[in-house]
Amino acid sequence: MASEQHLSAIKGAKVLMVGAGGIGCELLKTLALSGFKDIHIIDMDTIEVSNLNRQFLFRQSHVGESKAKVARDAVLKFRPDISITPYHANVKDPEFNVDFFKQFNVILNGLDNLDARRHVNRLCLAAGVPLIESGTTGFLGQVTVHVKGRTECYECQTKPAPKTYPVCTISSTPSKFVHCIVWAKDLLFAKLFGDKNQQNDLNVRSSNVSSSSQQTEDVFERQIDEDIEQYGRRLYDHVFGYNIELALSNEETWRHRNRPRPIYVKDIIPTELIHENGDLDKDSIIGDSSVSAMATLGLKNPQDLWSLKENSKLFFEALKLFFLKREKEIGNLIFDKDDQLAVEFVTAAANIRASSFGIPLHSLFEAKGIAGNIVHAVATTNAIIAGLIVIEAIKVLQNNVKDYRMTYCLEHPSKKMLLMPVEPFEPNKSCYVCSETPLTLEINTHHSKLRDLVEKIVKAKLGMNLPLIMHGSVLLYEVGDDLEENEVANYAANLEKVLSELPSPITGGTILTVEDLQQELKCSINIKHREQFDEEKEPDGMILFGWTQALAVEKNYNGASTSQATSLNTEEDEELQFIPTQIGKKRKLSDNFITASSDNSCIPKETKIKRKADEVDCNNGNSDYGREKMEQ
Amino acid sequence: MDGEELTEHETALYDRQIRVWGADAQRRLSKSHILVSGLKGTVVEFCKNIVLAGVGSVTLNDDRLVTEELLSANFLIPLDENVYAGKTLAELCCDSLKDFNPMVRVSVEKGALSNFGVDFFDKFDVVVVSCCSLSTKKSVNEKCRKLSKRMAFYTVDCRDNCGEIFVDLQNYIYSKKKDDETFQCHLDYPSFVEAIAVPWKSLPRRVSKLYLAMRVMEKYEELEGRVPGETSAADLLNVQKLRKELCEAHSVSESQIPDSILQRLLEGRQEFPPVCAIIGGILGQEVIKAISGKGDPLKNFFFFDAMDGKGIIEDISEQKAQG
C-alpha cells in the first residue's frame, strides 16, 4: 500500500481539518504519522475537563486553552518536521471564505453541530474541494466522502429532526422522565430565571386560561421583600400541588391514564426543617457560578437516587441560592449543562414532578445527561473513525473515485461486519444546495414582513450566514460590513415592511433570489400567496417546500426554535452524529440516517414548546386539553 | 461492583464514557490489570485507548532498542535519535503513557515474553501479545489457560495495510442489554491452538482470505526461524511452496490464498498508521467489553483490510465448523 505514488500524494497535500475535539485529536495524530506535511486546523473551543478522557493531546494543565493550538504543539513533539497551522476561531468567520478553502486539496470535518457542517459543505461545494465528513456517538460512527458532482453533498439527504414532544405531554400528561426534564428545564426554569418576555406554556393547563392568567403570572414573581422561604413554598405548592389539582379536574384526561398526585410542601417537609439548611451568608461568595445546593445540603454523590424529600430540599436550596447568590442573572439565565446550580434545580423539579406522576426518579448524573443532551463519547470510536478518514483522504488525493466509500462503525455486527463500507450515493438532483432546484414558499404576502422571511426562512431554514435578497435586479436586503449608511437604513426600513408593500413588491408568482456571498450559495424561491395558516400546525405562518429538514435544531427536546443559524458561539464539546438505522445494499436515500443529539450547551434562545404539525391532534387548535389523544 | 464509589474527580473526568458503559463498568476498569507485549504502532494505539479509559494498571513488555523503523507509527516517542538512543521501547512508551492519565499505573516488565512462567500471568486480568512467534502465542495462551482464574487473551498483528485480532475469553459470561432488559449470555472460546487446528475444509467457503494467509505467514516465519515481519519479496517462492503444502494437507484450493495477499504480507513490514488506529481501536473496545462484562464480545477473529475497507468478524472454532 505504501507505494511511491501514494506517499507522494500525501507529502504534496495541503489539508484543512475543521475541529480539534474527539475526532480531531485522533485525526491530527494519524495524519502526522501517515506522513502529511501541511495541515491547517480550525477550532474555536477551549479545553475542558470532560474532554480529557479521550482528547488525548490535552492535559489537565491545558484546561481553558485553545484546542487547535495545544493539539498542534502536542503533535509537533513527535513529528517536529511537519507544518501545522492552528486557528482558534469559528469556521463561520468571514476570513474562512471560498478562496481560503480553495488552497486545500481536501477538507476533513470533525465537527459537533449541524450548522457548522452545513456551512463547511457549502464552502466546499463553492470552492470545488472534496469534503470528508465524520461523526461518532458512543460505539457508533461514520465517515462519508462528498465530492461535487460525483457523490451526494452533505445536505442531499433529509436528516430527520430530533425527537420532539407534544406540548400537552410536557405540560399536563408526562409519562416518562424525559418529559419531566423538559418541563423543568424549558418551562419552569425558563419561567423563573429566563427572559420574562418569552412565551411560556407553564400555565396553560387550566380550561379557563384567559380569566386566570393575570393572577397566575404573579405566582411566579417573588414579591418585593417577600421572604425567600415563603416564596419557595408558594411556588412549590402552586406548581406541584395546585396545578396538579387543576389538571385533575379535567376528568376526561385521566380516564385512561394514571391520575397524578398533588404534592404540597407541608406533607413533605415540616416548616422548621426548611430553615435548618444553609447557613449561606458565611461561606459562599456572591456571584460565584460554582454555587451548589448539593454542597450546602451535604449531598455528595451525583449518581445517588435521592428521595422526594431530598429532592424537595434541593429544590428550595437551589431556588434560594439563585436569589441570594446570583440574583443579577435572574431574567437572563439560559439552562446550561455546565451550570451546577441550574442542573440541581432542574433535577429536583423534574424528580418532584416525576413523583407526582408515578414516574421513577433519577440521579442528578442521569438528569444532567438528559437535560444537557450530552453525547456519549469514547476514545476508541474516535480513533477508528479518524483512521477511516485518513484512508478516504488518501483515495481522494489520488482521485480514486471508484474506491471512495462511506463507512459505518457499528456496535453489533451486520453480516459479520463491525466496519461496513458502502458505495457513496450519487448527488440528489433535487437538492437545493448542490443542484439548482428552486424552492417554493407559501406565505401571506399581505401580512408577513420581510423580517419574518429573513428570520424564519433565510436564516433559520436555509442556514445562511450573510444573506442577500434580490427581486429581479432590485436589492431588498443585504448584510455586510461594507454597506453605506443610507443602504443600512434602507434595508432596516425594508425589514419592517409587509412583502407586498416593498419597493419592489413581493406577491404571488414572484421569484426571489436569495444568496449568501460567503457560502457562495444561491437559491431561487418561487413565492405563492396564501391567505390562511393554521396557528397550531403552521406556527411560522409560512411553509417552505423543496427544503430538506436538515437544520431542525440539533439539540432541544422540543425542537423549539429552528436553529439560530448565525450566532451561537457557545461551546459544544461533543461529536454530534448520524448513525445508520438500517443497513443493506439497497436503501432509500431517505432512510439511512438518524440524528443523534448533541451537547445541549447550544440552547435555542426561544425555549417554548411548539405545536408542530406532526404532533398536534393534541388539542385541535383550542385550549381544551381534556380531549387530547396522542402517543409519543 | 463491590460498592466502592468513584471519586468526584473520576466522575468528572470519565463523564462521557460513564454515560456509555455505566459507573459499575468504570469501577471494574479501574481495578483491572493489563499486560501488553510487543509495542509497535497498533499496540501503542491500544495502550493509549485503555489508559484513557482508566484501567487500573498497564504493564509494558518490549526490550527492543528503539529504531526509526519501530517508531514509524508511534506517537509516544519523538523521531529523534537524541531522545530514544539506547533506551528500550517499553521504557520510552511508559514515560509518555503515564502522562495521559495520572490515575493509571504504567510500568515496565523486562524479559522475554516466552520465558515468563504461569505464575507471572496470575497478576493480570488481560494479556495482549503482538510481534511474537507462533510458538510464543501458543505457549502464552496455554499458560493463561492454566490459571485458576479466567484470563482474557488477545493477539494482534498488523502488516501492510491490514491486520488481525485473535480473542480467547475461555468460558465467558456477560450481560447484554436489549430493549431495556438485561440478559445473561454465555460464550465458549477455543484456545489459539484449538482455533488454528480447525480444518480449513470445514470453514465457511467465504472465510476471510486474510485468515488463511496469516496462518501461512505465521507458519513460514516459524519454520524459517524469522522474527515476525522480517520477510521480503524474496521469500515469495518459498511461501508459495508452503501454501501448496498446507492447502493440500487441508484439501482446499490454493486460490483461497491469492499471491497478491501473500505479497502484501511479505513486503509490508512498515505499519500503516490509519490501520493501526483502526485495529488498536477495535482491540481497545473489545478489552473494555471483556473487563466490564458488558456487550457482545467478538468471537474469535477480527480482520480489517484497507483495500476493501471491511472490518470482519470470523468465528473459527470446532463446534461452529461441525454445526
Automatic annotation (TrEMBL), chain A:
Domain of life assignment: Eukaryota
Tagged with keyword Disulfide bond: no
Lineage: Eukaryota, Viridiplantae, Streptophyta, Embryophyta, Tracheophyta
Compartmental location: Nucleus
Name listed for the protein in its UniProt record: SUMO-activating enzyme subunit
Keywords, comma-separated and alphabetical: ATP-binding, Metal-binding, Nucleotide-binding, Nucleus, Transferase, Ubl conjugation pathway, Zinc
InterPro entries according to UniProt: ThiF/MoeB/HesA, ThiF_NAD_FAD-bd, UAE_UbL_dom, Ub-E1_IAD_1, Ub_act_enz_dom_a_sf, Uba2, UBA_E1_SCCH, Ubiquitin-activating_enz
Any GO BP: protein sumoylation
UniProtKB/TrEMBL annotation, chain B:
MF term (GO), any: SUMO activating enzyme activity
InterPro entries named in the record: ThiF/MoeB/HesA, ThiF_NAD_FAD-bd, Ubiquitin-activating_enz
A family per Pfam: ThiF
Swiss-Prot/TrEMBL keywords: Acetylation, Ligase, Nucleus, Ubl conjugation pathway
Location of the protein in the cell: Nucleus
GO CC annotation, single: nucleus
Transmembrane segments: none
Pathway the protein acts in: Protein modification; protein sumoylation
Boundaries of every THIF-type NAD/FAD binding fold domain copy: 14-314
Family named by the database record: Belongs to the ubiquitin-activating E1 family.
Subunit structure as annotated in this protein's UniProt entry: Heterodimer of SAE1A or SAE1B and SAE2. The complex binds SUMO proteins via SAE2.
Protein name: Ubiquitin-like 1-activating enzyme E1A
Organism per entry: Penstemon smallii
